[in-house]
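In this section we walk through a basic example: taking a raw amino acid sequence and producing a predicted 3D structure, encoded as discrete structure tokens. The instruction is simple. Fold the sequence below.
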Amino acid sequence: MEKEFVRVRSAVDYIISLVLLVGGCAIVIAPTKPAVNIVGIFAIFAGILLIVILRSAWKDKADGHKYQKKEMYFPQSLKDRIMGSVTGNIESLDTKEEDKGNGLRLDIYYSKHTGKAYVQVFEYIPYRYEPASGFYEFPVEKVEKIVSAK
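The resulting token sequence is shown next.
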């Protein structure tokens, strides 16, 4: 299965940026000392900067739905076990070995709105991660335990 996900802004990204913008404007407008106005200007600048660069959601180009992403890293020695879990029963994936190596990366894109989750395994080849599998689709209920771990 071929999927392509692109980074997009989520509602939380907009809220964070707008809170900084409105808070900074309120501080600048309020009759305060110049030092406090400088803090307001920095808050406005941070809000503008974040609205430009902050993108924490992922959008499927094919269907237009937004997904959240979780990356997990595993040692290379677990490749067969992880591939077996991904191709078979994803709930059997053991996350105890997570972050004990970085030879494999497991990307999970999930959305409670659509009820779908997509899983892909990447293998570390010097200087970059290359896909070691295609995308596998699961119901979001099967990956909830994995996504909520840690």
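Looking at the output, two observations stand out. The chain has a mean pLDDT of 89. Residues 5-58 form one domain. In the next section we compare this with other chains.
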